[in-house]
Amino acid sequence: MNLLVLLFLLASAHSSPTEPIFPEHQTESRFHFAALDEVRLLANGLLQLGQSLRDFVQNTKSQIKDIFQKLNIFDKSVYQLSVLASEIKEEEEELKKTTVILKANNKEIKGLSLEINSKVEDILKERKHLRRQVGGLEEKLSGLSQSLLSAEQVAQISTLKEIILTQEKSITDLLKAVREQSEQLNNQRTKIKGLENKFNSAHIQETDEYLDRNHQSNSLSGYLPYFTSDGSFSSDLPKDCGEVFSRGQKSSGLYAIKPHESQPFLVKCEFTEEGVFTVVQHRHDGSVDFDQSWETYEDGFGDFGSEFWLGLKKIYAVAHQGHSLLHVQIEDWRKEKHFTLYQYILEDAAFNYTIHLKLQTNESSSALDEHTGFRFSTKDHNDGNRDPNCAQDYTGGWWFSICGDFNLNGKCIQSRPRKKGTHWKPGKGTTRFKTTKISISHLSKPQTP
Question: In 218-265, which ranges are continuous DSSP H helix?
Answer without folding.
Answer: 241-246
